[in-house]
Amino acid sequence: MTEIERTLTITQQSDADGPVRLRVAGELDHHTAHRLRETFTSVPFATSGGVIVDLSGLDYCDSTGLTALITGHHQAKSAGSTLSIAGLRPHLERVFRIAGIDQVIPLLPTPERPSGEPAIPSDPR
């Protein structure tokens, strides 16, 4: 039996005048969630204007992925900062709302800056 290759890419962008933006794409599950948890340990929560996690490129998320996002939320809160989720596809937004994630972490419709320009360049897939 061959294991299916699971991919997850995480791109971090920091702006001097705004929040840290993490673009997470691929599959966030039992096999890949540790990478997001590791990324959260290096995010400068205390010195940033918050963190926006752009999930517009996320294809799949299981309970381990949800737990990694909640862990990031707790790290931000402990540092006196915030963490928001942006750009969820409809099928994932439904899962996040059923799981009650929207009661803990703000869900933003799009990962855009106030000027309307994309927060993180679109994935060319």
From TrEMBL:
Q: What is the lineage of its organism?
A: Bacteria, Bacillati, Actinomycetota, Actinomycetes, Kitasatosporales
User: What InterPro entries does the annotation carry?
Assistant: Anti-sigma_ant, MlaB-like_STAS, STAS_dom, STAS_dom_sf
Q: Which PROSITE patterns match?
A: STAS
Q: Which family does it belong to?
A: Belongs to the anti-sigma-factor antagonist family.
Per its UniProt record, what CDD domains does this chain match?
Answer: STAS_anti-anti-sigma_factors
Pfam families listed in its UniProt record: STAS_2
Q: STAS domain: which residues?
A: 9-123
Q: What is this protein called?
A: Anti-sigma factor antagonist
Which SUPFAM superfamilies does this entry report, sorted A to Z?
SpoIIaa-like
Q: Which PANTHER family match?
A: ANTI-SIGMA FACTOR ANTAGONIST TM_1081-RELATED (PTHR33495:SF2), ANTI-SIGMA FACTOR ANTAGONIST TM_1081-RELATED-RELATED (PTHR33495)
The UniProt GO MF terms for this protein read: anti-sigma factor antagonist activity
Origin superkingdom:
Bacteria
